[in-house]
Amino acid sequence: MKLYIFLLAAASAVDAASAPMPAPPGIPSQSIAQTELSSLAVKAFVDPGGYNRDLFPHWSTQSGACNIREYVLKRDGTNVVTNSACATTSGTWVSPYDGESWKAVSDVDIDHMVPLKNAWANGASRWTTAKREQFANDILSPQLWTVTDNLNQAKGDKSPDAWKPPLTSFYCTYAKSWVQVKYKWELSITSAEKSALASMINTSTLQYIPAS
User: Fold this and answer.
1) 3-state secondary structure string, 158-193?
2) Which of 105, 119, 123, 188 could form a disulfide with 43 if both were Cys (CB 3.0 to 4.6 A apart)?
3) What pLDDT score does 23 carry?
4) Where does the GmrSD restriction endonucleases C-terminal domain start and stop, copy by copy (predicted)?
5) What does the domain layout of the chain look like in residue ranges?
6) Mean pLDDT, to the nearest integer, of 27-36?
7) Which of 125, 116, 114 has the alpha carbon at shortest distance from 46?
């Protein structure tokens, strides 16, 4: 798994993103993200009701005793140690949302880039449970990220027009990742969400390049 570092155009953001950071696969280029964003269905937000997190079975088995959560913790961390049950016991994680480094696994969460409840309200309520399980455990797109736990809690089910990560230099990548997930899973967006995403993509303050 390749690690990536940030190449920042804004000098003020260099210190916050100078350490190597991992990235999930499938983050599109700026131009592709813009094209994908323009193709997404724009609909008014309507909560269909009936949401329950259990309708998105998550942390499915990935391999042996390891589930998707443990897989992502290993993917995103360095010097990650697990026990015989594949539970992570130690490591180091750098949260791309704020650039903070953590050594206790209790200080990080696995965030769904597009929250499950947001997906439910924008098309996933019509899916089968099997498809919702695939969405909740998608490691082939930029859907799952290891982040500072309180930021995951602050984000909740909010879309980018209501919540953005504290690290402004991550805006572009955050928006490109959000768009890619919605595009892949054919989920709709609101007009406010589309405006926020377009603005964030256009910041274009960084790009991922392979770490040497």
Assistant:
1) CCCCCCCCCCHHHHHHHHHHHHHHHHHCCCCECHHH
2) 188
3) 83
4) 103-199
5) 3-210
6) 97
7) 125
